[in-house]
Write a structure and sequence with these properties.
The protein is mostly helical and about 150 residues long. It is built from six helices and no strands.
Amino acid sequence: MYSFVLTVHNIMRWVVLIVGIIAIVRAFIGWFGKKEWADLDDKLGLGFTISVDVQLLLGLLLYVFLSPITTNAFSNMSAAMSDSGTRYFLIEHSLMMLVAIILAHFGRSRAKKADTDVGKFKNTAIFFTIAMLIILAMIPWFRPLLPF
């Protein structure tokens, strides 16, 4: 079960990156080009937030129940915190990805509430970009890029 969920989590990272980058590029084009907010822009924002939510659920499943890294770490937190690899998954990766997800949702919410199309694009561009930078910084690139 662990290998399956980890594989899906690894594959989903590409969905998050692709949808997020497309949403960000369209947001900047719309913001600086003073374009009209389209249904596609809303769907891309929704797709990005859904994909990070799926990642969160898969990550929580790994974190709490399946990952031998975290389940072993919970039994000896002192040792876990002194090991940089274990600490990365136990604290750093988890916490920063949660911050990125919150920022993505905040950006989507602010875009939906914005009065103008430029405001929608601006909120999307700013908050999705910050979220994406955190995501890119906290992806464990040392793991295989493809799970097979």
